[in-house]
Design a protein that fits this description.
Blueprint: E1 11-12, E2 15-16, H1 24-52, H2 73-93, H3 99-117, H4 134-158, H5 165-191, H6 196-222
Antiparallel strand pairs: 1-2
Helix pairs in contact: 1-2, 1-6, 2-3, 2-6, 3-4, 4-5, 5-6
């Protein structure tokens, strides 16, 4: 008498039936798309606050648009919070092999949030040429480290062998532009202080960071 067949895994002519893949790619693309939207909205709000606000134009820091007495301070803070959300969404959109870059972007998101929540005083004074309050130091320190985290995330992606080639190229190109600008901003702040030189360099550095984040998020969103 033949033995009854035992239940076992479903097989196909070529081997075991493949398991259904988890929809991680879909939500990664969704997170990347949301990051692009947050970057566009955040950059627009901050630009309006800086251009239309009572700040000193190119001779001051971008953060001066968020001073409490400014009528455009709410728009500035909303823009900064949107950019913080964009960094967090981009970190979530990156693949598992880019954990270092994702961690740096997540840290940059938290520090950007702190930068927007803690308002500096008029002129956003920083040492060694100006006398700063505790809020100025917290705001300035959070802003500086947030930008540094984003620049390091560019490098991390560029130096990760398993990363997508297009993402590595974007990271390498952005890092090549951002690193000299970051060094120049730091040196100018220590030797010259607040003025047109620091103002222009800071804006160029922030522009590179925003363009890189937007391009990287777009590349992830369009990836199949």
């Amino acid at each position: 008498m033949a033995e009854p067949r035992r239940a076992g895994p479903t097989t196909t002519p070529g081997g075991p039936a493949p398991r259904r893949a988890a929809p991680t790619a879909t939500w990664r693309r969704a997170a990347a798309s949301a990051a692009v939207g947050c970057i566009a909205a955040g950059a627009a709000a901050v630009t309006v606050a800086v251009v239309a606000g009572p700040g000193p134009g190119l001779t001051g820091y971008v953060s001066e648009a968020g001073v409490t007495d400014s009528a455009y301070a709410p728009a500035y803070r909303i823009g900064v919070f949107a950019l913080a959300a964009a960094l967090l969404l981009l970190a979530a959109a990156l693949r598992a092999g880019l954990r270092v870059a994702a961690a740096l972007l997540a840290a940059g998101s938290v520090l950007t949030l702190v930068s927007g929540a803690v308002t500096c005083s008029e002129g956003c004074p920083l040492p060694p040429f100006e006398r700063a309050t505790a809020a100025d130091l917290v705001h300035g320190g959070a802003s500086i480290v947030a930008v540094a985290s984003v620049v390091l995330a560019m490098l991390a992606i560029a130096l990760t062998p398993g990363a997508d080639r297009s993402l590595r190229r974007l990271g390498a190109g952005a890092a090549a532009a951002a690193l000299p600008l970051a060094g120049a901003v730091g040196l100018a702040m220590l030797t010259v202080g607040r003025g047109a030189l620091v103002g222009v360099l800071e804006r160029l550095l922030l522009l590179v960071a925003l363009l890189w984040a937007a391009a990287t998020a777009t590349a992830v969103a369009l990836r199949r």
